[in-house]
């Protein structure tokens, strides 16, 4: 029942966000098209969602077209020659992610949850890591508000599994509030202490069923 409440809150919040942010979305679209009128407006990435289902995650295009290195998926710096001038601003403040409110409204994603995983990484993930797909991927998540790319991929997976095991509406609210300073001051690593699971044999029965709640 609580997960149903989460879904209802997601759909309601996404609908409101799309209406309120519609002028911002239009301005971003115009800026992208003015800078590179012949290039696509969106980057539609195929990712893995809840239960390993695939969907197209909407995102404003921030880079020039280039081959994607799915084998290593390196982090792209803002000053990379691949990033456009408009794209650098969008990426700095996560504005390129705003179209994902459509994914949230559709039910592909949630406001809070582990970030989506691409099919290549999913194919190479362990059973422990795949537990992060027990819930819908989110616009923001526990790993994102605690440093995100400042941590290794494995560490982020451990944080995601911890989130699944400890999930509650209260924890979602905490993450949403923690997202605000991250957007304003960028991602910085935090000492998460015991708020990650390093036991590769750990199994989650169902979301929110395993460990003690955060203090």
Describe the structure.
- This protein has one domain (2-185).
- 41% of the residues lie in helices and 7% in strands.
- The protein contains eight helices and four strands; from the N terminus they run H-H-E-E-H-H-E-H-H-E-H-H.
- The protein has helices spanning 2-20, 22-35, 85-92, 100-106, 119-124, 127-130, 153-166, 169-185; strands at 45-48, 54-57, 110-112, 138-140.
- The strands form two sheets. A two-stranded antiparallel sheet has the order 1-2. The protein has a two-stranded parallel ribbon with strand order 3-4.
- Strand 1 and strand 2 form a beta hairpin.
- The longest helix has 19 residues, at 2-20.
Q: Output the number of helix runs.
A: 8
Distance between the termini: 24 Å
Q: Helix-strand pattern, N to C?
A: HHEEHHEHHEHH
Biggest β-sheet, characterized?
2 strands, antiparallel
β-strand percent reads 5-15%
Helix-residue proportion = 40-55%
Tally the structural domains: 1
The overall pLDDT average reads: 89
What is the global morphology?
A: globular
Going across the biggest sheet, name each strand in turn: 1-2
Cα Rg? 17 Å
Number of strands: 4
What structural class results from the helix and strand content? mainly alpha
Low-confidence stretches: none
């Amino acid at each position: 029942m609580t997960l149903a409440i989460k879904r209802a809150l997601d759909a309601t919040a996404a609908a409101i966000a799309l209406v309120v942010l519609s002028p911002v979305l239009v301005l971003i679209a115009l800026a992208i098209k003015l800078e590179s009128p012949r290039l696509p407006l969106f980057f539609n990435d195929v990712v893995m969602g809840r239960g390993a289902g695939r969907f197209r995650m909407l995102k404003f295009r921030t880079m020039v077209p280039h081959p994607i290195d799915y084998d290593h998926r390196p982090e792209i710096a803002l000053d990379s020659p691949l990033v456009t001038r408009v794209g650098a601003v969008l990426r700095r403040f996560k504005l390129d992610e705003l179209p994902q409110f459509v994914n949230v409204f559709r039910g592909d994603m949630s406001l809070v949850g582990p970030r989506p995983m691409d099919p290549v990484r999913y194919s190479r993930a362990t059973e422990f890591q795949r537990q992060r797909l027990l819930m819908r991927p989110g616009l923001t998540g526990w790993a994102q508000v605690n440093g995100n790319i400042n941590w290794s991929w494995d560490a982020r997976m451990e944080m995601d599994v911890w989130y699944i095991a400890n999930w509650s509406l209260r924890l979602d609210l905490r993450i949403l509030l923690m997202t605000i300073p991250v957007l304003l001051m960028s991602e910085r690593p935090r000492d998460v202490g015991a708020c990650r699971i390093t036991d590769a044999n750990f199994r989650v029965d169902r979301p929110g069923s395993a460990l003690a709640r955060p203090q």
